Amino acid sequence: MSSAAQNDQANEFAFNIHKCVELAYQSSESIEECFKHLKCEFEQKNGFEKFFSYFQQTFIDPTAIFPIDFWNIHDSLADSLKMADDVKYWRDYFQKIFNGECCTKLNVFIQKLQEF
């Protein structure tokens, strides 16, 4: 096999393996179904059987070394988006009550609160 063909094969393998990383962003309930879909998609391609077997035993199975709840970040992302909205709300609220004056220093912030 030529060097270019080996490089293309390695790039394809890396590209397809990265699809497994996307599982971390799926809801916990849908991960097994998404994994089955990925596995079926790559069953015909050489070199993926061992990887998917390893991945399933290590990350997907109920007895996996790293269970889904350990590595799944779907809920964490949703929670952090909610928190970002809360922070924006309070920032906007304080800007409104302080007439848009900047209160980045703690002593100025406390002084403004006391005036309020």
Structure in words:
The chain is 70% helix and 0% strand. It is mostly helical. The protein folds into 2 domains: 3-71, no CATH class; 74-115. The radius of gyration is 24 Å and the shape is elongated.
> What is Rg?
24 Å
Q: Roughly how many Å apart are the termini? A: 76 Å
Largest sheet: none
Number of helices: 6
Name the overall outline: elongated
Record field, number of beta strands: 0
Show unreliable segments. Answer: none
Q: Structural class, from helix and strand content?
A: mainly alpha
Keywords:
6 helices, single chain, 116 residues, mainly alpha
Short note summarizing the structure:
Helices cover 70% and strands 0% of the residues. With 116 residues, the chain is mostly helical. Helix 2 (31-42) runs antiparallel to helix 3.
